[in-house]
Amino acid sequence: MLLSEVAANGPQFFYLVPLVVLFPLIGLLINLIFGKRLSETIIGTVASTATVLALLVAVLLGISLVGHPEGAIVPVMTWIHIGELNIPWAFQVDSLSVTMMLVVAGVGALIHVYAVGYMHDDVRHHGDPSRYQRFFVFFNLFIVAMMILVSANNYLMLFIGWEGVGLCSYLLIGFWYDKGEGGIGNAIAGKKAFITNRIGDFGFLLAAFIMFVFFGTFTFEAVFEQAPEVASGAILAITLFMLLGVAGKSAQIPLYVWLPDAMAGPTPVSALIHAATMVTAGVYLVARSAPLYVLVPEAQNVVVWVGGLTALFAATIAVAQFDIKKVLAYSTISQLGFMVAAVGMGAFVAGIFHLVMHAFFKALLFLSAGSVIQGIERGAHHIEHDPALRKQAKDVHDLDPQDMRNMGGLRTRMKTTFWVYLIGALALAGIPPLAGFWSKDEILAEANIFNGWVYVLLTVAAVFTAFYMGRQVLMVFFGKPRTAATAHASESPNVMTVPLMILAGLTILAGTINLPGVHTFGHWLEQTMEENAHAGEFVIFVAALSTILAITALLLAYYLYYHRYKSMQDQPAAKRPDDPLRPILGPVFKLLENKYYIDELYSLVILNPYVKLSQFLADVIDWQFWHDWFHDVVIASTYNRLASFSSIQIDLGVIDGIANGLAKVTQSLAGQMRRLQTGYVRGYALSVFFGVVLILGYLMLR
Amino acid sequence: MSTELALFIMLSTVAVASALGMLFSRNAVYAALFLILNFATVAVFYLILSAPFIALAQVTVYAGAIMVLFLFVIMLLGAEQTGRTPTVWWIQPLALVLGVILLIESAYLVFTQRGSLPNPEGVPALYGAPKLVGETLFTQYVLPFEVTSILLLVGMIGAIVLTQRKARGKMDDS
Amino acid sequence: MLPVSYYIGLSAVLFTIGAVGVLIRRNAIVIFMSIELMLNAANLAFVSYARVHGAISGQIFVFFVMAVAAAEVAVGLALIVTIFNTKQSIDVDQMNALKG
Fold it and tell me: Which of A93, A286, A664, B45 suits a disulfide with A343, CB 3.0-4.6 Å?
């Protein structure tokens, strides 16, 4: 084909790879320094252009890789050079990293364009238009960090990017830091994300330290070369600690708790960071460390079970959530569980394939959800400014635009959003021939080979996935509008809907990159992962079963949330349950709605004792013991006593005493001596005479 | 016993006796007169010792001028008797004791080898004559001589200044 | 001539008597006279030794002693007169204004 000919004979573009970091960095600096003087449009354009340029570079790299599959390592500078340890900042261009770069830059560019429109409305809704610049600075910073992560050629550089995306996540979740519950709810959510991530980073660092002790280097090439000779216990420790980092970053059990709270950030943030890119960093890490993981099957087992359990666990919670973004958040956790299980069991191609597919349709779903939310806000705004309508709808102010119970019937009012959302939902549910079907199916097929129980686990999770997506689509878009704001909702502007449509197109077509039998993607990844990138089999039985189960789940959802819902509306408002499942499942529903009370459990078992411990350390140990007692009583008062001793006893007592004493002695001596001066001449003469006698006597007796 | 010795013993007895008399007499005038006797005796001693000029100078200056001056002042001041009980009672016994000790010491010193000198052979010619004295005085010792004359002048002035009456003293204190 | 030690002995005796006289007597004028006695004793010693050595310097010295004694007496008696004008007494025990 023409492309491969061009690629094989054309120039190599590997040396351009630093630009994937440099373009967003320049964009961020322009917005940071000049942002105050620029208009919103220009800020948004600068940021989006930077990301698009990064995308172009990634495409060029991809083309170069087609012709030169061996890739390249492009060093930029020496970062650490201490003795034997030499860690450069070098870019690794191979198929895995270029895949990630394309996903990040591609989806990132689309979301940037979407965010130009979304944030325009959002900053006005929250009342602070000057924050627009800040958003795009942080957004570009995220792209910079993520690019560093995926293009690094050693674990330490990867960690730099890892930390960087964690920072951007914190900054962007808490973007509206003065809003949220009680005025600091968003800031608390950001803090929760950062700290939970930090626990994962702790695991990553331990893995890095062990790696340094046993390998003496961090570079991927060197580590993977030495891996077979190193003690398997060390590799087991490294991989398990890395799993802790993956659990933190990719929201697996037990560190997933930050992701639902992260929905406090603006929707583009949720789409880019918490659906498409940052959370996939953990999956990328495992895929990159494949040579390590295949050496320790025990670690692989752990990874698979963690992923599988998370997939099912999160899927069950998603069934009972009412916030449109929370459903998607738990869905993300569940799908990440799929991916982690896949790379855990050695199906790296399947895992990365699902990562790419998931990026497309999850971003699509989040952005569409954002569109829905803004549509409802527009409706509320419309009512506010129309006095005739205001009399009818009194509950406009307290309306939560994200609660699905306040939505309904948006199918007719927001047509474009409805269609793209439907496409995304069906892809997530795994309906062929959309993207999600191919990738999820490959994972299920691999799971079947690996371990029967895992296959059952993942299949059940897939069923739940289909069910809650059907529930969501039906609650939001079908039926009748349940509030006035929803009834007056309007479609989003083009700057938001066009990226949605592009993403929808990608969702429909992207599955073709790894069709069974052709395995284009598999061959592509083979260049990097060699024997670890084995092609997945297409098992028709698995595919058929999963499709049938998915369609069954959707039908069940249709029955519950369309028919039953309609009949529920006839009941009086006070006794009407807000969800058809509530009367069926009863207390189980309540359990699911409250996320199995895990947050409360963590609070009780970990957080509260920790807070009490730190309060104890701060109050008792630091203040009372250290400051009040040790410093004040022991040190300060000892010093005071020493000083007063020195000044009173020594300085005044001894030294002044000596000085005064000398004077007194002199005085008393003089007083004594004075008595010699009797004034009697005869006495004086006597003493002279006496002296003469003595001297003569002495001379005489000598 | 040679003549010289007898003479010496006699004269020394007189000298010591008059000295003791001066010491113990209550009346100041009597003390002065005893002292004059002592000076005269010593003048005779000078004569024995071939110092005629000095002997006569002694009589003239000491006994004639100095003691006369003493007598003048005694008369002037009434020479009253002093009180019986001294304020410091232990000086007198102590002084006597010390005097005795001194005597013993000096006796020891003088009459052992240290105080004695060999007898002289003779004296040069004109020894003790005023001529020789005057010659030596005005050649070898002219500087002390002149200084002594200034000293006498100062003494005179001092005596006059000291005894001026208070009225004049006040005028000079302006 | 007799051994000079005789004369010196006599001089010593006279000197001692004069010294004791200075200490014992309270009359200022008598004290002065005792001092003259002491000076005289010293003169005697001078002359004796001058005779022994045949040196006229001893007699010259006596000459000077006499001159100085005269000056001293003049001034001293003038002092005593002055003191008498103030204190109406010449008892040295009463002249203790310099006591500390």
Answer: A286
Q: Is C99 domain-assigned?
A: no
Q: A90: which 2 tokens?
A: 């070098």
Closest-CA residue to A432 (of A315, A366, A356, A512): A512
Residue C26 forms part of a structural domain? yes
CATH code of the domain containing C80: 1.10.287.3510
- With an 8 Å Cβ cutoff, the interface of chain A facing chain B consists of 678, 680, 682-683, 686, 689-690, 692-693, 696-697, 700
In this predicted structure, what is the pLDDT of residue A7?
A: 55
φ/ψ of residue A151, rounded to 5: -100, 0
Quote the pLDDT of residue B173: 47
Closest alpha carbon within chain C to A674: C100
pLDDT for the residue numbered A66: 82
> Total structural domains in chain C?
1
Domain borders along chain B are 1-84
Q: Which candidate from C22, C23, C97 shows the least CB-CB separation from A679? A: C97
pLDDT digits (tens, 9 = 90+) for A464-508: 999 999 999 988 888 888 877 787 888 888 888 888 899 898 888
Encoded tokens for B40: 């005269």
User: Which run of H or E residues covers position A215?
Assistant: helix A185-215
Buried-state track A231-260, b at ≥16 Cβ within 10 A, e below 16: eeebbbbbbbbbbbbbbbbbbbbebbbbbb
Q: How far apart are the first and last CA of chain A?
A: 139
Is the CB of C83 inside 8 Å of chain A's CB atoms?
A: no
Answer yes or no: do C71 and B155 touch at CB < 8 A: yes
Element of type H or E holding B11: helix B3-24
Is residue C64 in a domain? yes
Tell me what the pLDDT averaged over chain A comes to.
Answer: 86
Q: Which domain holds residue C35?
A: 4-94
pLDDT tens figures, A568-578: 777 766 666 77
Tell whether the model's pLDDT for residue B107 goes beyond 90.
no
C30 contact A CB<8A:
no
Indicate the residue type of C17: I
- Of A169-183, A504-518, A561-575, B100-114, where does mean pLDDT reach its minimum? A561-575
First to last CA, chain C: 53
B 70-109 residues inside an 8 A Cβ radius of A: 87-88, 91, 94-95, 98, 101-102, 105-106, 108-109
Which residues in chain C touch residue B92, judged by CB atoms under 8 angstroms apart? 23-24
What is the phi/psi pair of residue A347, to 5°?
-90, 70
**Tokens in use for A436?**
């999600």
Q: A697 to each of A378, B21, B96, C49, how far by Cα in Å?
A: 134, 28, 17, 23
B6 has a pLDDT exceeding 80: yes
In a 13 Å sphere around the CA of A308, the CA atoms on its Cβ side amount to 25
What number does CATH give the domain B1-84? 1.20.120.1200
Tell me the residue ranges of DSSP E strands in C1-100.
Answer: none
Orientation of helix A132-151 relative to helix A40-67, angle to 10°: 10
CB B73 within 8 A of CB C83: no
- What pLDDT does A226 receive? 87
pLDDT of residue B9: 92
Amino acid at B25: S
- Average pLDDT of chain B to the nearest whole number: 83
Mean pLDDT in residue range A643-649: 83
Residues 6+ apart with CB under 8 A from B115: B109, C5, C8, C9
Q: Which three-class secondary structure state does DSSP give residue C20? A: helix
Q: Could you count the other beta carbons within 10 Å of the beta carbon of residue B14?
A: 16
Token duo for residue A599 = 């947050």
A112 in Cβ contact with A44 (< 8 Å): yes
Would C13 be classed as within a structural domain?
A: yes
What gap in Å lies between CA A688 and CA B123, rounded to an integer? 38
Say whether A679 and C23 touch across the interface (CB within 8 A).
no
